[in-house]
Design goal:
globular; mainly alpha; two-stranded antiparallel sheet
Length: 304
């Protein structure tokens, strides 16, 4: 029972206290990864494979050792599982940032909302109008509900603490080196592809739960099937399309990343995003999170 209890306790801990502003384990991993990159970097896929395999391999091996050493001590194992779950989840931080942008828009502070939006997205926000700011928030809430909550819960339920921490290691590396740029096009290939693979089951479950639990399940499924393939990400596409259909809004469009412009396929045939859609997306994410926790707990019990 220790793993299921740990998943629930870690989820509740994330909801109660969120991420610490200092000394977060993921930030510590990022610092180690950055230091190692200074020694391993080259514009080469092979070097990127070594970089990713080293960091992820050490993380998985260390967490497997901890799991094995605490397995016969249920209270300690539950505490370790709870701490690992809390460390990898990001649902509370996601909600906090989305609602912060929403409050700024409600008070008519669009320039400050654009600035706060940079906590959620990597695109250029300086010239976005209110509808585009809301679109960016809704897209981020959809994608990160999968990346930061559903996917790690699902993997942790199936493969325990090593899968939880290994997933977050891969996800962090993807955020650091997996994006397309002149520097990381080759070096970041391994991290990006591994992240795509690990997120595949979680993204499909997230899209399904958003469709089932959203206001318009039929339109969510229709939008998912019709539009998801047009998104450049194989995992963000289904999730964002399902959220768009469920909420009756239109996502996708033109995004600016520095000197690079992406013209993304529209997701959904609904109206443009409006201010209240941030809260609607957050509420839908809440329902998806709770359902994912229930399914993960059940899966962990079956695994036991």
């Amino acid at each position: 029972m220790s793993l299921p209890l740990g998943l629930v306790a870690g989820f509740l801990l994330d909801r109660a206290v969120g991420d610490p502003t200092r000394f977060h384990p993921v930030a510590g991993f990022g610092a180690v990864a950055g230091a190692l990159e200074s020694r391993t970097y080259a514009a080469s896929r092979a070097r990127g494979v070594v970089h990713t395999a080293t960091l992820v391999g050490v993380t998985v091996a260390a967490s497997a050792l901890v799991e094995r050493s605490t397995r016969r001590r249920p209270v300690l194992h539950t505490a370790v599982a709870a701490a690992a779950t809390w460390a990898v989840l990001g649902g509370s931080s996601l909600e906090r940032e989305a609602l912060a942008v929403s409050r700024l828009l409600e008070s008519g502070r669009l320039p400050e909302a654009r600035e706060r939006l940079t906590h959620l997205v990597g695109r250029d926000t300086t010239s976005l109008d209110e509808s585009e700011v809301v679109r960016a928030v809704v897209e981020s809430v959809a994608e990160n509900t999968s990346d930061a909550v559903v996917a790690p819960l699902l993997l942790g339920a199936v493969a325990g603490i090593p899968a939880l921490l290994g997933y977050r290691a891969v996800n962090t590396l993807d955020a650091m080196v997996g994006h397309r740029s002149a520097r990381y096009e080759q070096f970041g290939w391994a991290a990006a592809r591994l992240d795509d693979l690990l997120n595949l089951p979680g993204s499909r479950l997230t899209a399904l739960l958003a469709a089932v639990l959203g206001p318009d399940p039929r339109e969510a499924v229709t939008t998912w099937r019709r539009d998801a393939a047009g998104h450049p990400s194989p995992n963000a596409g289904p999730v964002e399309a399902s959220f768009a259909g469920a909420l009756g809004v239109r996502l996708g469009g033109t995004n600016q990343y520095g000197d690079r412009t992406e013209h993304r396929h529209p997701l959904g045939t609904g109206r443009p995003c409006e201010r209240q859609d941030i809260m609607r997306a957050v509420h839908l994410a809440h329902r998806v999170d709770r359902a994912a926790l229930a399914l993960a707990t059940l899966a962990a019990l079956c695994r036991r």
